[in-house]
Amino acid sequence: xxxxxxxxxxxxxxxxxxxxxxxxxxxxxxxxxxxxxxxxxxxxxxxxxxxxxxxxxxxxxxxxxxxxxxxxxxxxxxxxxxxxxxxxxxxxxxxxxxxxxxxxxxxxxxxxxxxxxxxxxxxxxxxxxxxxxxxxxxxxxxxxxxxxxxxxxxxxxxxxxxxxxxxxxxxxxxxxxxxxxxxxxxxxxxxxxxxxxxxxxxxxxxxxxxxxxxxxxxxxxxxx
Length: 224
Known about the structure:
Blueprint: H1 20-33, E1 39-44, H2 46-57, E2 62-68, H3 85-93, H4 101-115, H5 124-137, E3 167-172, H6 180-189, E4 194-198, H7 210-223
Parallel strand pairs: 1-2, 2-3, 3-4
Helix pairs in contact: 1-2, 4-5
């Protein structure tokens, strides 16, 4: 669990006491605590950005990368498309009562439906169950809001072309947050990276794609 997620330390809503660089250092700290010298890193969305940054900051700790539903964590010399109009309209009107568990669940399910991309069937019952368990497990679900306010650590980093770890980029063709051009650009920026496009998939991990994604992860690890 990242900070402000699940059972991890939480901060008052609107007052995250950490930067993105701290979350990257936390990932290295997990490896330290488990006495793991090098690892395959798998990151989804923001987790994919943290995995890239750890590969740039501590390349000796990273054997390989699997980057899912994410975008470049450092600047690229190209313009990438913004989120879809539907995503931006949803984000502008999104509001829940963070003190009301039912309101939080409804809001998160609606957000998950949007992220799914609108092409494949959306399993609302399964997502509602997952969100409910997420909410019940959290130390303070309201702290989730802090993830939208995490400051950059201001650190100068080398370009993605300096990443030497074998990399697989996995991206849904209908991702409304990071349109497919983000995945394409990421795969082009990291030397030797392989792009795996999930047709009809949105943002995140759809259960129907689990076998494909697991094959990509285990294949990456076996190659390393």
